[in-house]
Structure formats: structure tokens, C-alpha cells
Amino acid sequence: MSLTDWARNGWLVEHRTSPQEIADLLGVADRDLRDGAVKDLSEDWQLHTMRRCSAPRRH
Fold first, then answer.
1. Chain segment 18-41, per-residue pLDDT in tens
2. N or C: which end of the chain has fewer CB within 10 A?
3. Given a cut of 80, is residue 11 above it in pLDDT?
4. Any residues with CB less than 8 A from the CB of 21 and at least 6 apart, and which?
5. Contact at 8 Å (CB) between 12 and 6?
6. pLDDT on residue 33
7. Is the predicted pLDDT of residue 4 greater than 80, yes or no?
8. Is 2 among the domain residues?
9. Distance of CA 32 to CAs 18, 46, 55, Å?
10. Contact (CB, 8 A) for 57 and 29
11. Is 51 inside a domain boundary?
């Protein structure tokens, strides 16, 4: 299955990004990585935070 097939099936939505949007998303990732490194945070929450920063974001 190709990307063209996905688009034809309505599974993809075209999105135009901007340098500001990319910078904002990288800022969120940086924050999540810092939050995941907090020593007093439980191991469960460290893992949760690290997984969040690697998961795709939906708007």
C-alpha cells in the first residue's frame, strides 16, 4: 500500500507546517526529556514521560 492509497482512503490529512510550529514541538520534546530526568520522580512517571516525548503528537 502506498501513501497515495492512504490519501485516497482518507487516512492522511495534508498539513503545512511552519518553522515556528517545529520549534514549538522541539521545545515540548526538550521539556519532556528534562522532566523525565528529574531524580525525585518515580520510575513509573519517568518512563511515562519518556514514552510521551517519543509518541506522535495529535492536534
1. 999 999 999 988 887 887 777 787
2. C
3. yes
4. none
5. yes
6. 81
7. yes
8. no
9. 21, 10, 11
10. no
11. yes
The residue to which cell 485516497 is assigned:
8
Which range of residues forms the domain containing residue 55? 18-59
In angstroms, the CA 42 to CA 50 distance is 12
The number of angstroms, rounded, from the C-alpha of 33 to the middle of its chain's C-alpha atoms is 12
Amino acid at 22: I
Closest CA to 57 of 31, 43, 45, 37: 31
Would residue 26 count as lying in a domain? yes
Of 29, 35, 25, the residue nearest 59 (C-alpha):
25
Q: Which amino acid is at 32?
A: D
Q: Is residue 38 part of a domain?
A: yes
Number of domains making up the chain? 1
